[in-house]
Specification:
The chain has helices spanning 7-30, 32-71, 85-140, 147-179, 191-199, 203-208, 225-241, 297-306; strands at residues 187-190, 212-217, 220-223, 248-255, 259-266, 310-316, 322-329. The chain is of the alpha+beta class. It has three domains: 2-77; 121-179, Helix Hairpins; 187-329, Heat Shock Protein 90.
Amino acid sequence: MRLLRNKEVRNECLVLIVITIVASIVAGLWNPACGGCVLVVCAMLNGVHLVNTYRRYRRIEALSADINRILHDDIHISFDKYEEGELAILESEVQKMVVRLREQQGQLLADKKYLAESIADISHQIRTPLTSINLLLSFLAESDITEEKRQKTIRELYELLSRIDWLITTLLKISKLDAGTIQLNKENVLMKNLIMQSVEPLLVPIELRGLEVKVEAQGKFVGDVKWTSEAIGNIVKNCMEHTPMGGTLQIQASENALYQEIIVEDTGCGIAPEDLPHIFERFYKGKNSNDKSFGIGLALARGIITAQNGTIKVENKKTNGAKFTLRFYKELS
């Protein structure tokens, strides 16, 4: 019998046989008539035990086969047939493992799909300016190009290269945030200083567009100033690009016992209702986006804010323009 090839079962059977023989001898010495009865009863009990052991090992074998099928991608297996004793405990643990494996499998498939789509998006975003660069280089190679056209072409090349550099740098920052390899600092600065540091790189393009910037800031900010400035700057840049000449950008910052709040508003065209749920998704470009937009600035901003126990919300104002609300929640002591 295959069951007897199991060393543990063989040892158990030997122990039971020895106990049966000893019990029969002892009973026979005490009363010769009882010796045979004890032998028969013990033999029957040993047989019942052997049958139950055989059935238990058969169930364990079936459970092992089911686990093996799970490992080979059969996800439609039920463990309801294992309902007794130690097998029920084992079944419960295996069921937890199966649920976890299925969740991990689903997550891995989702990550794989997302990675493939991200690579395709990145390739497209980089290929577009590279195509323009190749075309401009062919213009520069012409022998009869004028000095004015040559200078203009060089400026366009610099602009395209700057866009590619910004795209790659931003993607690297997003990747570091996702991987959790960035150490965010805890700094204590005035809200006004944080806002001014965020807006400073955009002052020239804001002036060229004839926009007015209004800042009302009170209280202090506790967090990573460098990264938070970049997040706010990306939001202000988005508002600037969607505000017509002569418009207004308004930034309000305040602090209370629960959180620090920063509100950025513009007087632009607002955000299309169908774009609102997707505005912070990577590579998403709304219907009002220009050709130079990559669709990753707001995604980076959200990543920086959420990494600091914060939230970001966008909505359209009742009059005109968009409104971004940032909140950084304080840690309760």
